[in-house]
Amino acid sequence: MFFLLSKILSFLLIPFNWCVLLILVAIIFKSKRTKKQALYSATIIFLIFSNSFLFQKVLKAWEYTAKSLQHEQTQTKPLLILGGLSNYEDATQRIHFKEASDRLLQAVLLQKKNPERLIIISGGSAEIYFEERPEADYLQEYLVSIGIDSTKILFEKQSRNTHENAFYSAALFDSLSINKDISLITSAFHMRRAKACFEKQGFQVDAVSTHILSNYKPLKPADYFMPSLSTLQLWPLILKEWMGILMYKLKGFI
To answer: Which CATH superfamily hosts domain 72-210?
Structure first.
């Protein structure tokens, strides 16, 4: 039930959807006052959530700070990668990597520096409409195909969300008597919730933020006032994290 509810909330945490619903209100209702208020509200929401300057301010305050990998290159602790970075296309029998695949790329770099480090992939299927291959399965095959020793790869494929990532990973570590001192690898915007979940399950977490969305280059003049559709599309990532932290605290997951 909680998993299904989280999917419904994800739909509601999209500013673009708010604009669409308000425009529908303006179309359906006959009251001129209601139409005007709905259209004004839709316009304000669009302008706020498509503003790159405002988004970058929020993002830089929220994302878990990325650090140099120099310290990590000397570590021996397991590299635990959270899924949600790819999908598998049955028709072509190919993996399609998403932007979050930076998680995997950084982990491979660190493992190549020290081939004795374990890589643990945590991620099952979060699909609710049809059955699909667990992400951990095909990513394990991929890592072996690029030369990672199969004995250095473990996977957990039961999890469907961040809480379950931590819960089932803890069960895996306990079953194999592996020390729960890990380098946790996930997207910077997701790290705060992920780190809290894993610490709740008894892990000692060295956070390795990847997939950085913050732009540290100077903003262009247009970024201060011109609407950006790409910015509008990124806001749900942050809103979902805020709602996720609230829900996880209420559920006792963090």
So the answer is: HUPs (3.40.50.620)
